Amino acid sequence: MNTTSRKLLNLLQWAFPLSGRPWKTLGEKLDLPESEVLAQVRALYDDGVIRQIGAIFDTRRLGYTSALIALRVEASRLDEVACAINRHPGVSHNYQREHDFNLWFTLAVPPGSDFETVAERLTDLPGVERVRLLPTLRLFKIGVRLDMERDEKHLDRDQAPSDLPTRPPRPLTLQDKTLIRVTQEDLPLVEEPFAQLAEQAAVTQEQLLAWLAEMQAMGYLRRFAAILRHRKAGFTDNGMLTWCVREDRIEEAGRIAGAFPQVSHCYQRPTYPDWPYNLFTMVHARSRENCERIRERIAEALRPLGVSRSAALYTLKEYKKERVKYFAETAEA
Known about the structure:
The structure is a single chain. The chain has helices at residues 3-14, 22-30, 34-46, 78-86, 115-123, 174-183, 193-201, 205-218, 250-258, 288-302; strands spanning 50-57, 65-73, 91-97, 103-109, 128-134, 138-142, 221-228, 237-243, 263-268, 279-285, 310-321. It has 333 residues and is an alpha+beta fold. It folds into two domains: 3-57 and 164-228, Arc Repressor Mutant, subunit A, CATH 1.10.10; 65-159 and 231-321, Alpha-Beta Plaits (2-Layer Sandwich).
């Protein structure tokens, strides 16, 4: 992958232009013609590096209930259990991880659904020995941005995350839900992609772009961006690094951990007698060694808060990774 492709991937992840001719705008930043930008994006899709370009919405703000769920599954039944869980359309991520709790997945259910009933039904399977629901209690950071240009081992801490809504939310309308269904799909690789999406939704391009800006200001839309396949992009290892933090220091710890650019997700989650870790940080790196070095740096930063216990759960197998389709007519309750 050449230098220009790496710069392009960073722009697609971090600064996708919400404009009538986004590829032209990107080309101006890269000193490339619009046609060349489109050609490079198509090649990155063909190579499997780009998974999707589209709107990334905030699950909870849309009214969905979601949680991370940890299972301890009998080893001989792990594949069978994972396959059964994957059938639910609200399951977006499902991984085998290195731990006694060996299967971890995320579940989101639409407004009006009873989350605990759905989760109980979904996990009532032969071979499942223990279930732990781990909903988000506090969100400190969310947003996967793989830096394609710099070595993740040497990145300095950023400012504390501050992607806050700038406008009070209003209730979602039927048209909002139609536009969500349209914009959460893959962006067409044509010169004016938003015009094509607008036509599908029976609005003008100007109305669609204004709506995206409004959704972002209200916090419904987290960002419009490319999602990469980590391994194809060179990030072969990811670790769920978890920390045991005193309740009175959790907010400070979350700000510190979330300021590391290598951390894509940072949450407070509940604890159990057999799971004492309440701060979760996700790290993506080009090697296990790099993950461990980043873990050491986070541990050093948290040490003044009295944090000494942690657990690193590395992915052994990816069973499922895809976006939840919000307000889909086929969604299960």
